[in-house]
Request: fold
Amino acid sequence: MAPGAFDPKGKLETAIAESVVNFPRPAEVDKFTYGTAGFRTKGDWLDHVMFGMGLLAGLRSRKLKGQTIGVMITASHNKAEDNGVKLVDPMGEMLEQDWESWATTIVNGQNPEETVKAYGEVIQKYNIDQDKPANVIYARDTRPSGARLVKALEAGLKATNVTYKDFGILTTPQLHYLVRATNTQNDKNPYGEVSEAGYYKKIGAAFRTAMKNVKATSPVTVDCANGVGAPKLKEMIKYLPTEEECGLKINVVNDRVEQAEVLNKDCGADYVKTQQKVPQGFDGKAYDRWCSFDGDADRIVYYFNEEGPVFRLLDGDRIATLAASFLGDLVAKCDFSENLKLGVVQTAYANGASSKYVTERLQLQSEFTPTGVKHLHHAAARYDIGVYFEANGHGTVLFSNKALNTIWSKEPESPAQLENLEVLRAATELINQTVGDAISDFLLVEAILAHKEYTVQEWITTYTDKPNKLAKQVVKRRDEYKTVPGTAEQKLESPKGLQEQIDTEVAKYREGRCFVRASGTEDAVRIYGEALSSYDVDHMVQTVADLINMRSGSSG
Ligand SMILES: CC(=O)N[C@H]1[C@@H](OP(=O)(O)O)O[C@H](CO)[C@@H](O)[C@@H]1O
Ligand SMILES: [Mg+2]
Reply:
């Protein structure tokens, strides 16, 4: 058929209608919405969504000349019975925003005819030729519902004649890696071998180079949230230099993947960050270095206990500043003829002290985007070296082509410069540039700590966090809470008059900052505040919560 042509009684369309009846819509869900994290809900309700994602992944691949599209089945840090799905674009980035609404449309058909109709709308809108090749790869985390959901996905792929490959159980960033590796395998600079082992080889070799002349302080303990990060980190360790070689001993805890119900339970990066406490299974002594992955291993936070014990968190802001300081130093020492622009991208939830440290101490550019990794990723891509992290521990570093060319083509002028250059080159290979990756970020942090000869105490004293609080408030209608574009979501446009009230309140506190926005993932609005004293923060955030409560009551 011609591009854009669609026949509701055509071969593929008939196959869709016949197959989708095996994956009916669950009565429990009114409407599915593709949000920041793709689709996410109870695993039992997602078969129909998976079928639709099979259709859409195939269409997206056909639209992009047969380039391989990824499908990741995971619900990250959510509980074990939940599941979810996200599409991955050809260079390993998140699905293009325009297509998110098509994802929503294609899974919300009330009957087979409506599903076929939605499929046809995408074909017409994007002028897609159904006879063209389509390639999709997919993987899932360790959730029990994953194996069944894969069948629904495959049914959608089969109905529309898509060539596909199942990569089994992987971390989310591994799937992103594989998508990019697949699409660049015939390029001059392939991203890496197209296999899970290829991922370990690339990162393992880079870590070995980065650690060549330094020794780590051992040990470090990794809480894997009882998720997919556990078996994958254990596999990664086989490719790393041994403790004798580099000084690093890695303990893996919370690795009970066979026990589905303990996934993310009282452990993992999200628990540690939101509860501000050590995970289940913590047995560290004062100042022992620990970190936690989330359930699909795309987030990481570090922490330790001071005597007391007093819990101290080293979150995404800390990793961003550590990485920016390290990379900035290396770039300066390599003395490139080209000027490489380094920047740090954060959201408004970043602690003010970290942003100040970036601009004043590191003398680097700092920028803020709205919440959500795709915003940070796009902004970071505009720098030669763009470091981005959400405070919750999701982030990575992006190197522009110019940066890569400069770094790899430079002729060193001294043995010391060669050493720095080698470390910087290793960093470009060690860091997963497709998406935040707990395993890759973990090894980056470990390499940096070894180079800087930092203990956790030295790391945390680089700056002092401002007292802060993140609260949430359930409201009748969170969609009433809209922010002014270009303010990184820090000013409300509506409800009318609320921002003025917040401003008046915040002005009462020394170095006060407070903003309110609707959550994209939960049915609530979030309130973030910081000020010079923690007493002030508590008071300010509580008063703002009360203001919202009063509004919410009258507007409902
Ligand atoms: C304050 C906060 O941590 N917000 C999280 C949360 O978004 P909300 O839109 O705030 O619900 O979930 C997002 C997806 O995981 C993550 O990107 C983001 O950082
Ligand atoms: Mg995650």
